[in-house]
């Protein structure tokens, strides 16, 4: 029996942040038919719209790919969950809803690395186009875009103390980290709307599903890209166990993220020929960097016990019910805001050329118990500290040619000595914040952290045992102008025709900040590139 066949002009793999933007923008052109293919299933109850639901969606196979990394020899053999969204909206449906663009210098560095058209002056209009911010302006923020970016509707008092302590410790105050300057400390902004998560699917796809030239096909496991010679012609896939042939008249775009896009390239014969051959995959394009250059923000999740009630107090049943009722009535509530209350981008030492560290402040602390995230009753907050521009590089490796077998993730988060030094300085900054009033006046202890004045060997041992990824994997389909790059600045996969990659796997260098906003921008950029050729 022949597989079912579906055709469209442009086929996009992955209804995550970049894929949703790209599909929406392409389908604004009436003469282009767009098929958006997603492995996850559409929601019926829209659980992900409740911001606090991420405590139940992360690690839940209904919403999450549930990847687990390989033991990391640079961190005492640590392995951990690497969440990636498996639902329309992708990771924007299960993430912490933190909206930050990265620094202008990040994109200028991309351009300096040969990525023409990706400098700050090129991408700022795209960032402005995609958003409706609470405080739009004519220079930096947008007011007409589909993605809602909101100020916090609920603020915990201790977060204000954290901002004051950061300023007292020497971090510049900043009214808008997405504005004229990226450096400093400020209240977080989130991808929320009226107390609800505003995922890329809700912003860019759901309102336009009635377009005759836009189709979302969920529950599809893509097995490989199909080729005629070196021209991509479509996809071989399965839906509900049945084979499915998808034909792309104009081209295929992989927007499946930093884990799945390189995995699909390898399954399709694009990668290191020796590695592909070990799994019986015929090489189509010799591209050894596919799956290499894995970048992730390494850092620490430091819990502080404080002397005042935190959001942990709202986890007891009667308080949780009261806060949930407030959220239902549209009142300020911890149920309706992103994870982080405060963000900061700052220099770990005076000689740093750019801000090399980031803080988040969560107004709660959580524990992993029996594989599930729980909120204890202790009064805890979490100070998250990470390096902005890691030099360490991990990689992805095929386990087999089976498309259903997850790819092996080798993080090697602390592989570079400079990253270790940056994070050790960051640990000192965490201690400084915990000792600086007014926040420091309320800190009783930093949980598990070696005390001030500990020997460097103690701090290093703590770092290797406690360092974790920040769920910002990038770079595994590196963009560049050199022959080793996986994709060119126009997002075309080198050596192929009619095949592109458009997601954060293209990063040539990591950005200072969380990655969702940049993924949205990449979708906008990809749409402009493709429409310019239509």
TrEMBL record:
Its cofactor is FAD. Residues 257-271 form the Glucose-methanol-choline oxidoreductase N-terminal domain. InterPro entries: FAD/NAD-bd_sf, GMC_OxRdtase, GMC_OxRdtase_N, GMC_OxRtase_C. Pfam families: GMC_oxred_C, GMC_oxred_N. Keywords: FAD, Flavoprotein. Belongs to the GMC oxidoreductase family. This is FAD-binding protein. It comes from Plastoroseomonas hellenica.
């Amino acid at each position: 029996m022949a597989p079912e066949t579906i055709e469209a002009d442009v086929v996009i793999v992955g209804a995550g942040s970049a894929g949703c933007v790209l599909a929406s923008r392409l389908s604004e052109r009436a003469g282009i038919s767009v098929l958006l293919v997603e492995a996850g299933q559409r929601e019926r109850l829209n659980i992900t719209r409740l911001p606090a639901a991420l405590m139940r969606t992360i690690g839940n196979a209904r919403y999450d790919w549930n990847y687990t990394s390989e033991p990391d020899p640079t961190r005492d053999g640590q392995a951990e969950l690497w969440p990636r969204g498996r639902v329309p909206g992708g990771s924007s449906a299960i993430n912490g809803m933190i909206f930050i663009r990265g620094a202008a210098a990040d994109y200028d560095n991309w351009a300096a690395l040969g990525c023409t058209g990706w400098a700050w002056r090129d991408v700022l209009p795209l960032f402005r186009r995609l958003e409706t911010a609470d405080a739009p302006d004519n220079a930096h923020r947008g007011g007409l875009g589909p993605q809602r970016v909101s100020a916090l509707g609920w603020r915990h008092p201790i977060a204000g103390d954290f901002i004051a302590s950061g300023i007292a410790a020497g971090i510049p105050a900043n009214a808008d980290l997405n504005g004229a300057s990226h450096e400093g400390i400020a209240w977080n902004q989130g991808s929320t709307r009226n107390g609800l998560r505003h995922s890329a699917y809700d912003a860019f796809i759901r309102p336009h599903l009635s377009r005759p030239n836009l189709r979302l096909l969920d529950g599809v496991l893509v097995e490989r890209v199909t080729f005629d010679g070196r021209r991509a012609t479509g996809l071989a896939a399965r839906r509900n166990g049945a084979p499915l042939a998808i034909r792309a008249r104009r081209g295929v775009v992989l927007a499946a993220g930093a884990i799945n896009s390189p995995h699909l390239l390898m399954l399709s014969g694009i990668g290191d020929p020796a590695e592909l051959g070990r799994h019986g995959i015929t090489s189509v394009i010799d591209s050894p960097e596919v799956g290499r250059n894995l970048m992730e923000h390494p850092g620490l999740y430091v819990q502080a016990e404080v002397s005042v009630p935190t959001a942990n107090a709202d986890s007891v049943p009667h308080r949780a019910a009261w806060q949930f009722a407030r959220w239902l009535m549209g009142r300020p509530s911890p149920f309706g805001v992103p994870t982080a209350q405060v963000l900061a981008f700052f220099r770990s030492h005076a000689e740093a050329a750019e801000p090399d560290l980031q803080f988040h402040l969560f107004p709660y602390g959580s524990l992993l118990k029996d594989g599930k995230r729980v909120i204890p009753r202790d009064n805890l907050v979490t100070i998250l500290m990470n390096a902005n521009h890691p030099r360490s590089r991990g990689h992805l490796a095929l386990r087999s040619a089976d498309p259903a077998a997850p790819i092996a993730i080798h993080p090697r988060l602390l592989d570079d000595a400079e990253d270790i030094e940056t994070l050790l300085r960051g640990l000192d900054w965490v201690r400084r914040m915990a000792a600086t009033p007014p926040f420091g006046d309320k800190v009783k202890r930093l949980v598990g952290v070696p005390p001030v004045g500990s020997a460097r060997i103690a701090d290093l041992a703590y770092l290797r045992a406690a360092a974790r990824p920040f769920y910002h994997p990038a770079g595994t389909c590196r963009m560049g102008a050199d022959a080793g790059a996986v994709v060119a600045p126009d997002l075309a996969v080198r050596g192929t025709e009619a095949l592109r990659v458009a997601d954060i796997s293209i990063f040539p260098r990591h950005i200072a900040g969380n990655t969702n906003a940049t993924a949205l921008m990449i979708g906008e950029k990809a749409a402009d590139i493709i429409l310019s050729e239509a």
